[in-house]
Design a protein that fits this description.
CATH superfamily: Gcn5-related N-acetyltransferase (GNAT)
Number of helices: 5
CATH class: Alpha Beta
Oligomer: single chain
Radius of gyration: 16 Å
Number of domains: 1
Shape: globular
Largest sheet: 7 strands, mixed
Helix content: 25-40%
Strand order of the largest sheet: 1-2-3-4-5-7-6
Mean pLDDT: 92
Order of helices and strands: EHHEEEHEHEEH
Structural class: alpha+beta
Low-confidence stretches: 160-167
CATH topology: Aminopeptidase
């Protein structure tokens, strides 16, 4: 797994994965191009053997107290191996580095795998947007993460493992 910041050369591969992952509500190419080039965001790609197998983006304006996970997608044949979690962690670190204290996202109510990933990282449901995803009429589950708490838990995890190994 190789994570790196996306650039314009990744757009075609990102759009192929976008359309495969979100067939009814994929972002347009101009929208994705603007996101990748925006100074207020960061898109990260996961490349394996020269093939883009995942991407994710965060909108985190420097100095703002909140940030938004824009999207995360993993190729179907690359799922279940921690790639989504690695992308999410990279995006959350970016938000933290830019000064965010809270991170928000929307996830489709019919995507329990993504919801479980977000919950396992500390996101909590704060609301719903009925029929948000069109044309499928699927609700959006709005989630929020306390970024300082997430960072503290991640920083404490290696110490807890080390302490357990010494017992």
């Amino acid at each position: 797994m190789t994570l790196r910041t996306a650039d314009a050369r990744d757009l075609a591969a990102i759009m192929d994965l976008e359309r495969a992952s979100f067939p009814t509500d994929a972002w347009s190419e101009p929208m994705m191009r603007a996101e990748i080039s925006s100074p207020h965001g960061r898109y990260v790609v996961d490349v394996e053997a020269g093939r883009l197998v995942g991407y994710g983006g965060v909108r985190a304006v420097s100095g703002a107290h909140d940030a938004d996970i824009q999207t995360i997608a993993i190729a179907a044949d690359a799922r279940g191996r921690g790639r989504g979690r690695a992308l999410l962690a990279a995006l959350l670190r970016t938000a933290r580095e830019r000064g965010a204290r809270e991170v928000f996202l929307e996830v489709r109510a019919d995507n329990p795998t993504a919801s479980a990933l977000y919950a396992s990282e500390g996101f909590t449901e704060i609301g719903r947007r009925p029929r948000y995803y069109q044309p499928d009429d699927v609700d959006a589950v709005v989630m929020k993460l306390d970024l300082a708490g997430w960072a503290a838990a991640r920083d404490a995890a290696p110490a807890a493992i080390d302490a357990g190994a010494c017992s």
